[in-house]
Structures are given as structure tokens and as C-alpha cells.
Write the C-alpha cells for this entry.
Amino acid sequence: MTGAGAPAPPSGGEPDGTTAPARHPGPARYAGLVGAVLLAVAGYLGGALPSAPLRTTPATIWQQRHGPLVIGAWLVGTALLVGAWWSLRRGVPSAGWAYRTAGLWAVPLLVTAPVGSRDVYSYACQGWAYAHGVDPYITGVAEAGCPWVDTVAPIWRDTPAPYGPVFVLLAALAVLLGGGLTGTIVLLRLFALAGVLLAALCLPGLARAAGVPTRRAAWLLLACPLVGVHLLAGAHNDAVMLGLLLLGLLVLVRLPGRPRALLVAGALLGLAVAVKATAVVVLPFAALMAVHGRYTVRALLRDGAWLAGGVLAALVGSSLLSGLGAGWVGGLNRSGDSEQWTSPPTAVGFVIDYAGALAGREPNAVPVARVVAVLLLAVLLVGLWWRAWTALRGLGDARQRVARLAAARPRVALRGAGLALAATVALAPVFHPWYATWPLALLAVAATRTTWFVLPSAAATFLTLPDGTNLARFSKAPGAIAMTALTVTLLVVLSRLTLHPARRRTGPAEPR
């Protein structure tokens, strides 16, 4: 079956043959496995362990007992893992091969210490605070008296939780069942694993609906080093958000226009938002997927209302169940406390400040650049949604093309949602490597061309050392200048494409 809602088992291949599989994928599989093992060793010897020193630098890490081994294993392991993933980006033998290889690579990373970030300790302390009657949206983990506060990065000890009530409840459950810090971390990693597995189960249906080979979608997402290193080894809650998000979208793909299904899909999407608010940018595109039949304003309002009802029910229900209300919204304001050049608007602000300093002034341009970026993001999101709406409505208005509407609906909406998440990541005030998995999850199943988002995902894997040290901290000026130059170049290219748009196609996309 190849219909929009047809399921595809993970072990199946693809009938369309749009991408030729690699002739000899075995070496890449085992090179990636060696890389994963080396990263696990680096995590065990010098990862984000509870007792690891904070505020480290590459030099201080090198001077530690196992420093040279840690850095060497991290560098070689990351290079092998990224190289193996990149080498097979255009095709693997089958979807089953992609699933098995991604699972093989994940095993070493599931049994090592937290790698690439100390956020999991923040999760643990926020869960501890809630479990002990403290509102994590008002009180920082240090003031709450968390016994593990010394494991939390100093910048996050006095800030409120920026996550939704669903994840706070999950973190508290991990604390109650874990019985200590180690048990809590293990359960938080299991939650992340559950999110990745849920996403893996949803990939075949979404990829088929969008006309993309399942093997390509599975490889690009599940075998991506960011997933293994950060979502699994780092136990980031982004995995839970993505799992719920993809499941909600799959329900829409399978059962558009059915009130009960729309309520269920809306509830799943609402739960994703209640884990991490980033998922909210997908909701307007999910409303497009909810429409069954021709695209009219009346149909959009009718089916979108059922979807919105499910979203609101999940948000209100989780807020009431937690007893925390909407306090988590205020915590989002502190997510931009970190300033790194890896965020394009922040990098532009840095460069303006450097130029001002040369002229004897202090522009303090970073906050302004970030505000401008948020405004630009709002415009881009509206534009992306309008483009998807007009494309789908145009298909419905042309009688000879109505038969293609059902096939175009998931492809256009999923691609629009992926581009919206990509814009969100690019224009956010802060960028961390695992943020790249947000658009990757949707673009892997819907994008025609892949290099433009696969290449940044590969590069982002090298940004953090095993203990969570962000290398961007040590290249602030040159990094900011390079990022600003890249941003200006991309803006010029996008402006030219907007003024001279290429002929748009609405047929099935062929991956590259």
C-alpha cells in the first residue's frame, strides 16, 4: 500500500527507488558502532558525571587524569559516528537496516554516563522540588533545597523551570521511583528512550504519507548522532516532545476530518507542548492536516476547532493535574540567559557590540537583535503557513487536480511544519545542539532536499565536549563574526529566491 495513511513496517523497503542505496554499507555501520563505543568510553571517563568539575575548559580537561584519552575518544568517536551517518545519507539498503543500525549505535550510549550536557541534573532537581511541595516555576532548585544542586550547572540553579507541567510530572515521577540521583537519571533516560521509540514507530506512516522512502527518513532521524548523543545519552526531554508530536501528526495523517481522531491528535500535540513549548509552532500546520476534503475557510474552522479542543484539554488538564497552573509560561523568559554565538541573532548582536566598542560606544545590541529576530520569526511563520494554505487550497480549487489533494495534504503540511521549526531554531535567542533535532524529525519525512539541514546537524555534534563544556564559549569573537557572515549570506540568497521564485512543485518530493 502506498496511500497517505498506509502503514509501513520498519523492516520494509521502499518501492519508489528514488534514492539508490549504498553498495557496501557494512563498513559505515561498524565505523559508526566504533564511534559510539568511543563516545561511551569518553562519557564513562569524562562525561557529565555528578562529581565532574564545573566551568572546565579544554585545557583543564586535558590536564585531568584521563584527559587526553577523553578528548581523543570524543573527537575520534564523534568523527566516526558523524562520518558514517553522513556517508549513507543518500540511501541505505532498507528501512529495517536503518532501524537495526540506529539501534546498534544507541546501545553503548544508553549505558554510559550523561554526555554533552548537565541538563538532566536540572530535570532531576526540578522533579525533586515539585515532589517535595515546591513550585519549580517560582523557586530555583538551589533555593528549593535540592540535595543534588551541586550537580546542576551554576547558570540554572536560580532559574525557574522552563518546561511544561507534563515534563515536571514525569521528572517528579522519576524522583519518586528512582530513590536517589542515579535511579532518577536512569528513569529520565528511559523516558527519553520511550520518546525516541515512539518517534521511530511513527516514521513509516509519516514518510509514506509524504512520499518519502521510509529508509531515508529512518536513517536521517534515528541514526543522527544528535539523537544518540544528546537525546539518549544526554536524556533530553526533547525526545519526549518529539515522540508525542509525531504521534499526534500520524493520527492526523491517518484520520483527517474525524472529530474523535482530531480530539485525540490535539491532545497528543497539547501534551507535546506541555513538555516543551517549542511544539506550539507546529499547531497551525497540524490544523491544515486536520482538514478532510477541499480546503475552505469553513472546513479549516470546523476541523481546526476539534483539534484546538484537544490541545486545550491537554494543556488545561495537565496544568490542573499538576496544580501549577500556567506558571511555566513565565519560566520561558529565562531560557535566553545564556549568550553564545551559535544563535544567529545573538551572534549579530555580538558583532554590533564589537563594532561599537571600536568606535568607543556600548550599543548593547544583543537584546535588540534578539527582539528583531523574534519579530522576523513571527513574520516567517505566518508566511510559511500562508504558503502551505494557498498551495493546498489551489489544489482543491482546480477540479482536475482534486484527486491529488489527499496525497499533497500531509506532504505540504509536514514540510511547512519542518520549515517552521527550522526557522524557530535559527532565530531563537539560544541554540544548543539538540535543538537541531526539532526540524530534523519533520524534514526527514517531508523534505525534498536534505543537505541543507543534514550538514548543520552534523556540525552541531562537535559543539560540546563529553562533560557538557560548550566549545562556543572559547571562540566567541571569531565564531560571532563567522556566524554573522553566514547569516547575511543566507539572507541575501533567500531574498533573491523570494524576488525570483522558482517554479513550485506540489508532486511527491524526491530526496537527495
The chain has a mean pLDDT of 90. The CA atoms of residues 164 and 342 lie 25 Å apart.
